[in-house]
Amino acid sequence: MPSSSPSLDQLKRALAIAEQIQKLEAEYAALLGGKPAVAPTSITAAAKPAKRGGKRTLSAEARAKMAAAAEARWAKKGRGVPPLVKTARKKRVLSAEGRARIVAAVKARHAAARKAK
Questions:
Q1: Which of 43, 88, 107, 110 is 20–30 Å from 58 (CA)?
Q2: By C-alpha distance, which of 79, 82, 50, 48 is closest to 66?
Q3: Residue 34 belongs to what domain range?
């Protein structure tokens, strides 16, 4: 590949080929009713669909309205509070005795598995 810039004749020939390609694409589109193919290099940033960035958020007022509507729907069905409204539960605590029983059961299970091998 030559390192110098293309000559005027080469540029004219390239332009003629590009025009032929455009004519053939237009003819192809007319035959099949589709869009002519576009080279990936000709796609600009403006032609690409814009991506929507960020997290969508609702205002506190909108969330309150939605919660009230959900509660009203559930109340209408006679079911009480909707499942999304969680009440604070007391954290369950394992007693020392319960933990000791679990440890003993695990040890017995492991011993039986080793014996079976």
A1: 88
A2: 82
A3: 9-38
